[in-house]
Structure formats: C-alpha cells, structure tokens
Write a structure and sequence with these properties.
- The chain has twelve helices and 15 strands.
- By secondary structure, it is α/β, with parallel strands linked by helices.
- It folds into two domains: 12-240, Type I PLP-dependent aspartate aminotransferase-like (Major domain) (Aspartate Aminotransferase, domain 2), CATH 3.40.640.10; 243-369, Aspartate Aminotransferase, domain 1, CATH 3.90.1150.10.
- The strands form four sheets. The protein has a five-stranded parallel sheet with strand order 5-4-2-3-14.
- Helix 6 (136-146) links the parallel strand 4 (121-124) and strand 5 (149-150).
- The two termini are 23 Å apart.
Length: 370
Amino acid sequence: MMPIIRPTLPQFREVEDLVRASWDEGQVTTGHIVRAFEEEVCRQTGATHAIAVSSCTAGLMLAPQAMELPAGSEVIVPSFTFAATAQALVWNGLVPVFCECRPGSLTLDPDDVERNLSPRTSAICPAYVYGLPPDIDALLDVGERHGLRVYFDSAQGLGAEYRGRKAGVFGSCEVFSLSPTKVVTAVEGGVICTNDARLASRFRSMRDYGKDPTNGEDMIYLGLSARLSEMHAAVGLLSLKRLDELVKARLHLIESYRLRLGRLPGCRVQTIPEDRTTSGNYFVLFMTERARMNRDEVHAILKSRGIQTKRYFYPPLHRQTVFQRFPSRVSDRMECTVGASREALALPLYSHMTQEQFERVCRELEHLLA
C-alpha cells in the first residue's frame, strides 16, 4: 500500500547525537533542546514567543483558558476543518458556531462569520486549510470591530505565508501541529506562537499543569501535562532546519499534480490566492458531479489497487456524531462546505516522494477519470 502520508524524518543518528547529552543528564523533557527548538521556531516565523507542547490539540485546549474566554460563550469556527478545532472548544465548555468556507480557497468566510456573531460570541478561530492561510486581514478586522479575540488553528500551516509574512505572527496566537502528517514533524507534538508576552507566560505555566513559575508548587492556572520531550524536540529541530527545502519539494509536487490532474473532466483543485502561499501539507482533488466517477468510487478503487487516499475533510464538523451531543450552532449557509466535503480526496504527498510514486498515482487517476 502506498501511504497517503509518510513523514520526512532526519537520520536516526542525527537525533541520537543531538539528544545524547540530555539523555545522559536525565533532563528528558522541556530542556535545552526544547528551548533550542522554540528559538528556531521564532527565527523561522518571526514570532516573539514559541511554546512547545505535546500536541496541537493540547495547544488548542490551552488557548481558550489562557485567553480567559468565558465559559459557555460561543467561538466561531469553520465546519470544513479537522475535528480538533472544535473538540478543543467543547473540552473548555465553549460552544462552537460552525460557519461556511469560501469557494475556491475553502477557508473560513469572513462574511459568514459576521452574519453569525451573537452577544455570546467571544472569539473567532479560523483554520489553515491543507496548509493555506485564510483571509487573515478580513478576519482580524471582524474581530477588532466587534471586540473579539482571533486565534488560529494553524495545525497544517507551518511554512505558509500571508502577504509576505510567515505564519505564526497573526492574531492572539497560532497553534501548529508537529504530528507525523505535517510538513515539519517532531513525531508527535505542537507549538504555540504568540507576540503577547502575557499569553506566552501563561502558556508556559499551563503546559506544566498551571504551576506557579516561582516555586512550582502552587497551581495558578488550569493546565495540562502538555510538555514536549527532548527526544521529540530533537526530531522537530532537525526537521525545522529543513523547512524551506521540505516546503519547496511539496510545492513542486503540488504544482505537478495540479497541471496533471486539475484538468481532468469534472475535477477541480483548491484555489491559492496571489497574496498567500501554502505550506503544501496536502494536495486534494475535488470530483464534481460532472466527473466520470464520484469521489467515493475513486477512493475505493484506489484502495483496492494499493494507493491510500483520504476523504478530507469528511464529514464536515457540523455533521459529525460527536458534535450532536454538545451545544453548537450552525450557519444556514453551508453549501460550499457540504459540497467540498462530498468531493474532496487527498492524494499521497510527502517531501521525499519519488517521481515513480507520483507517476503511479497520476496514471491510476487518469485511467479512472480521463
């Protein structure tokens, strides 16, 4: 089976050499390698502060607490995103308000956000879709005009740019993933970027149960055990130093996919606006009603032929089982979201993907859809 994602990992000996001193000293979590990783994140993104955590989901769970969003308040999120965006809200006793995405880019629609504000709204949490930044300026403008926090689920966005600025410097904070499915991986992990010193201090305490930094005994915030180990940070640091190379390789493959498959009858691809770049986390082909086969048929046939794909994002969050059990609200304009979720198929993509693997995927899809 050709996997849809394979992490591009450093050589094991590089990790071993980097982590040996921490291992010998017994400082295996939140030590000098974690600090070096955080410093490199700041250098690469331009963010003032970077706080490494055990996962992006943990970071998304800590963010509402650090920002002191009122319990029971509403937070605007896209429905066309991964479940963790909204699960983190439910864990905090917040109410997700699922809104529409824009045609083409498939990122959160600022107009639909504004239509769905209420007196209970406390924040907006847009997501980077397949690595593509949303319309950040428009979303920040909505937040500023209505006195709302804006923070970003940037899980797939490390290495992306918006209007000449790297992802990581926008809003109250941005939370990135370092899981095996991301361009930069730490095997598992995440990192929060912020330019707010007060928030950064809270995040550092809250990733370690909420300890008082002066004595480590009194818990002053509601926190988690969300530290990043030195071993994970070593993988992350070595990967992060190759960020430009990893992104460049993916963008080359994505452009090749777009040229080869985006012209198939009834198929379309994500639109990348000229004022931003994607990290290249995923390439997704959309099979419309005019395609020779529908998305689910193609998904099943490729699986039978040894090529793993993913219906992504499917189902949209407002139709997922878990969110039917908790308070939420749904925009009355979800046509683009529902359509994209019905048509989207993520194809194999990794920075070290070979030309032979690329050709195999393309030939199979051309055979089915041409």
